[in-house]
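In the current project phase, we have settled on a layout for protein records. One protein thus recorded is set out beneath this paragraph:
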Amino acid sequence: MAGQSVGASAPQMPPAPPSNPFQTPRKHGRNLRDKVANLWRRLADRVRRNPAIWWPVILVSALAVFGAALGSIDTSTPSTADTVVPKGSGTTTPTADGTINDLIVHSIVAIVAYENGEPCQQGSGSIVGDSRHVLTNQHVIASDEECTVDEIRVQTMKNSGDLPRDMFIGKVLASDEDIDLAILSIEPINANFPTLRPLEISSSNSVGQDLVVVGFPAVGGDSVTVSKGIISGFAFEYGVQWIKTDAAISGGNSGGAALDTKNRLIGIPTMLSQSSDGRGTDCRKAADTNGDGVIDDEDTCVGVGGTFALLATSETAVRFAKTIGLDISRPIAPSPTTTSPKR
């Protein structure tokens, strides 16, 4: 063409851009792989020359890496204590059957003896048999020179922290001074009475076995009390066997319940104790055990010369109940007859 020199070279085109403008050079990657490969070869060479030194090192390192990886995996289940409860949500009191709180509300009662409309003595009791009967001590419901009993009221609670309230009228069906046991039948005072549940009874006792004693300390006073102890041994008084225990028997706990670790009735607290020489003695409020400056029903029952409180055994109680044709060896579901208030 005109103006173009013969033999001149054709104009050069600019180089084509790379197909991927974000593609990085591979030189650095090749150098890194080469370095890793080189280190690996050198390590393998050292292992071959000194296997006794390097193989333990490799094994320990592998275990450490494996342990770290395993520890990073959280296999625990969420704890209920860590659960966040939204504000304003309702809360309920646990009412699991068989707990001490449940037994106190449904199976342990306070017993108050009255003379001319005034309370004159009190104790505790346990619901047994068919839920219409209460097992307690004879001295809790018997008249003496200080109290001529003309009415017996049985009290219960809605919760273990409440004070007991009159709910039933009790009638003595049987009592025995020697074994200090009595059985009451009960009738509701009005239609707002609670549902009671008889305790399960066990006669399986052994020295060193743990137990708890449950009862009410005083008339119109504190709520229910629970003390712990063990079966320290056994004694024989008045022709029957007794359980010796180191558990504190507070004033008013008499007639309550001594329970095993499965919350079964194994004994009934009494006002008897046994001295170190094996003689039976009375248990009385003979010392200011609570430090209030007064010796009264608020103080712990202390055996006069005694070291162990005595519990009437559940086996003795079962035999005693059979004398009036009552079987308390196993709990029976409440019957409709307990739903009729006393008129």
User: Anything to note?
Assistant: The two ends are 136 Å apart (CA to CA).
